[in-house]
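Re: Re: ligand-bound prediction request (bumping)

Still looking for help on this. To restate: I need the protein modeled with copper (II) ion bound, output as structure tokens. Inputs repeated here so nobody has to scroll up.
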Amino acid sequence: MNKTIAIIVAVVVVGFGAWYFMKSDYSLKKDEMQATSTPEEAVVSENGAVMGEKQVVVYTDEGYVPSSLIIKAGEVVEFRNESSRETWPASAKHPTHTGYPGTDIKKCDTAEAGEMFDSCGGIAPGASWTFTFNEKEEWGYHDHLDAKKFGKIIVE
Ligand SMILES: [Cu+2]
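Reply:
Sorry for the wait, this slipped through. Here it is.
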């Protein structure tokens, strides 16, 4: 009888221990995930639907920060100019910008301009330009006004 009780107690203790371990391990993983992907705010469309998270790349006088950003397909990236001069974020490669599907600097003066990974013009200091990445891959980009400044968006 005492042996049976001892076995039950042992099972309960081990079970609780396993549960507690898994719980703390899970919350640790959740924290790590949040550290690698830090969506700043959800983008809400006019009808109230959440369009996906928005991530921010800041353009400084030293270049794009972060220079490499991992996002999920469908997320929006805001290129925010906090430098002292204009920036023109555009898909690789300079000067044609044909790396991202559908993007081509030659189409900047057409109706397709709004769907291209190319701001098609300088973004003033203090201003922003946003683009939604629907295509999964690693997309290089640069500042068309200063092509030595570049970065990449990794869409998973
Ligand atoms: Cu360019």
